[in-house]
C-alpha cells in the first residue's frame, strides 16, 4: 500500500498542470481538489491508470444566437403586463410634454383664444414629426430570420438557425471508423488545457480570419472512451480521457483543415443526436444550453409530479 501511495504522489504533478494553479490543491491521500471539490483516485494502481489513457482537450466552439427567439403565449402576456404597468406608472417624457402642449395650443387656436404670435407658435412641427415617425414605423418590414442556409439545410454555414446556439462538430478517423466529435487533440507536457484547446482549434482550421475565445481555464465537461484494438496497439494507450473546454465564436468563417478531419457541421443542441454516438451526446448535452423549449407549457405541467403524503410520517 505504501508503495502505491508513493507512486501516486510522484504521478500527481502530471495531472495538476492541466488545470489553473488557483483551482487545484493537493489533499492527503489518493486525490486532489478542483474548485473545492475533492476527487479521489481509488484505482488499485493510480500510476498505471494515468499511463494507460491519453489525456486530450476538446473544444466546444459555440456561435451564440444572432436574433432573439419569438415570444410564446405566456411570455407575450407577461410582456404586455410589464408594458402596461410601465405606461401607467412612468412620468411623461420631454417629447410627450411638448406634444401635450401643442395639442393645447391647437385647441386654443380653434376657439380663437390666441393672438397672431401665439398662432404661429401653434404651428410647431412636433406633432407632424410624430406622425411622420409613426408612418415610417408602420412601413418598416423586419428581415426574414429564415435564411438561404436554412432553406437549403446547409449545415456547414453559420448563417442558419439564427435564433439558436450552434456548436462545431468534426468528422474524424478513429481506427477504421469515422466518428463525429468536437475538435480535439492530445495534451502536451507543460500546456494548460486552455492552451491545448487554442492550439487544437487553430490546427483544425485553415481560416486566417477565424476569431474565437476560450472562455475559461477549467473544463466544462469530461468524457472517457477506449480506443479500437488497432489504435491501442499502435499508441500503447487503452483509450482517451477528454476534457471539454468552452470557446465562443467571435467572427470569421471556419474552413476545415483536411489533414485533421474529413468534414464538419454547425449544429444545434437538438441536432446532436443525428451525428454523435449516444454516450458522447449524453455528456455533451450537459454543458450545451438548450435555448428552445419545444414542449408546450400544458404538457410540462402534466408531467410535473403531484404532491404526495410524506413517507416519513403522517400529519395530525
List the helices and strands and how they pair.
Blueprint: H1 2-15, E1 24-26, E2 31-34, E3 37-40, H2 46-52, E4 53-63, H3 73-89, H4 94-110, H5 116-121, H6 126-139, H7 148-152, E5 166-174, E6 177-181, E7 184-186, H8 193-204, E8 211-214, E9 221-226, H9 229-235, E10 239-251, E11 263-267, H10 278-284, H11 297-303
Parallel strand pairs: 4-10
Antiparallel strand pairs: 1-2, 2-3, 4-5, 4-7, 5-6, 5-11, 8-10, 9-10
Secondary structure: number of strands = 11
Secondary structure: helix percent: 25-40%
Cα shape: elongated
Low-confidence stretches: 8-13, 20-30, 39-44, 46-50, 293-316
Question: Strand percentage, roughly?
Answer: 15-25%
Order of helices and strands: HEEEHEHHHHHEEEHEEHEEHH
User: For the report, how would you describe the main beta sheet?
Assistant: 8 strands, mixed
- Give the terminus-to-terminus CA distance: 56 Å
Tell me the structural class: alpha+beta
Mean pLDDT across residues = 78
What would you report as the Rg, rounded to the nearest angstrom? 30 Å
**Count of alpha/pi helices:** 11
